[in-house]
Structure formats: C-alpha cells, structure tokens
C-alpha cells in the first residue's frame, strides 16, 4: 500500500502554503505522482523527499529555475558542484550574520553603559595608562576627509570583526597639537577606535600613559572648539605643559539620540604637571 498525502497535508508537513505546491506543480518542478481513481492527486514519500531537496536548495539561495534545471538533469558531479557552491554562499551569510551579531552585542553593551557614565560639568585632571588605537589619517585633498577616513577605518576593522567588532559611528577624533596652538579646532588629524585586545590590522598606535585634562562637551562635534578653549585656559592657568595631541571621544552619539544637540563627547589633552 502506497502512503500518500493530499496537497494540504504535504503543505502542513513542511510548513508551506498550498499555493506554493500548486505553483511548483504548474511549473513542473514538483508534480504529485499518484493519481487516485476518485480524481485526487497525491504526493508520495518519494515526492516529499524531492520537495525537501527543493526547499533546502531554495533556502540556500538557489533560484527555482536553477533548481529545476538541476533536477531535470541530475548527475553526481553536478550535485557536488551545486552543493559546494551553495555551501560556500551559506558560509558567507553566516560570517555576515556573525559580524552583525558582534556589532549589535557591542552596541547593546555600550547603550547599557550610557546610564553609568558620569557626565560631569567641571574640568578634571586624571592619569590614564597606555592604550592602543587603530587609526586612519584624514586626507584633506579628499572632498569629504572625515567620511572617507571613517569608511577606511570601518573597512580595516571589518577585516577582523569576528574577533573584535567594529562600531560604525563611535570613532574618536585626534587634533594635532599644532592646530590647537593655531586655534584651528576643527581640522582633525586622524580618526581612531580603541582596541580592547591586540589585533594585527591597519595602523596601530600606542598612546603612552599620561595625565589628561578633560571635560565633557555637549552638542555637535563641530562646536567642540568652545570646550577646547576652556581646557586650554585651564591648562594655562595651572601652568601645565601640553605633551601631545588632543582627542575627542564620543560618549553619546546617533545610536543613543537623534539630535546632534544631545551628543556628548569627552575632550582630552595630555599634559605634564610640575
């Protein structure tokens, strides 16, 4: 006795619609192979095995026309080639999803930390140990220096994202000390991202441990000069010596707010204290 399935039963078994099976029948991709004397057409187990193969190949990204061509002229060699090709595509998708997962997990962690950040209103002096950053210099011969640099940094970090994880908007900015002296606060030297672990990619820079005069800037990055002025005045007042480049580190950005007026960033200038 042949075990047979009505179209509704086959559809339910594989969680697809009756319309899908009717379409497969109309294009001769999968036809019910058992015709009963009552006029009904039924699927057999062999038909369902073929359906399972069709659904697997379709889920892997293969078009129905390619699946039909493959089923019409099956061969051992063609099967291996097809399955290897689709397996390669699936692995690519898996890597893309892993990248997305890492980015979202890292962003979720950062968003959770926003509530713990102390958004102080004064100017402070603190010592920070050596840190490593991955950086990309800004090219001012480019039409969009900042956008080009951040895109290049993102591409560099994406190369190792499965072990590190890139953040597309939260890149720090470095200002050349000479630009500070010349009151040119919006001509940045490079964009960077902190490295929580050593990875052999891009241009890695080790920033030595140092005292930093720091403050919180509220508002768009292009208005940070107002806060940098306050830091410079504070440094002059206390007779500190600037020892290196200044930094703008985003704390609250477009992942946490929709308005640049609500952005918060920390500005830091390394100094030597007497």
Automatic annotation (TrEMBL):
Residues 1-73 form the HTH merR-type domain. The keyword Plastid does not apply. Keywords: DNA-binding, Repressor, Transcription, Transcription regulation. The keyword Transcription regulation applies. SMART domains: HTH_MERR. This is MerR family transcriptional regulator. Signal peptide: none annotated.
């Amino acid at each position: 006795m042949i075990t047979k399935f009505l179209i509704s039963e086959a559809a339910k078994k594989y969680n697809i619609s009756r319309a899908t099976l009717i379409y497969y029948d109309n294009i001769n991709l999968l036809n019910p192979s058992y015709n009963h004397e009552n006029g009904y057409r039924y699927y057999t187990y062999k038909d369902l095995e073929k359906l399972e193969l069709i659904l697997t190949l379709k889920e892997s990204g293969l078009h129905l026309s390619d699946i039909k061509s493959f089923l019409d002229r099956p061969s051992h060699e063609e099967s291996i080639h097809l399955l290897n090709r689709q397996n390669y595509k699936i692995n690519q998708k898996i890597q893309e999803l892993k990248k997305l997962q890492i980015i979202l997990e890292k962003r979720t962690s950062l968003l959770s930390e926003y509530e713990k950040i102390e958004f102080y209103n004064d100017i402070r002096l603190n010592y920070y140990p050596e840190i490593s950053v991955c950086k990309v210099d800004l090219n001012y011969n480019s039409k969009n220096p900042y956008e080009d640099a951040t895109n290049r940094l993102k591409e560099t970090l994406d190369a190792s994202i499965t072990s590190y994880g890139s953040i597309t908007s939260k890149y720090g900015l470095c200002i050349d000390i000479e630009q500070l002296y010349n009151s040119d606060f919006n001509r940045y030297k490079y964009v960077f991202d902190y490295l929580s672990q050593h990875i052999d990619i891009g241009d890695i820079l080790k920033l030595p441990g140092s005292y930093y005069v720091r403050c919180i800037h509220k508002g768009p990055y292009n208005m940070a000069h107002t806060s940098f002025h306050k830091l410079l005045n504070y440094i002059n007042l206390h007779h500190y010596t600037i020892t290196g480049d200044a930094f703008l580190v985003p704390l609250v950005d477009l992942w946490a707010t929709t308005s640049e007026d609500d952005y918060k960033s920390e500005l830091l200038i390394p100094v030597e204290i007497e």
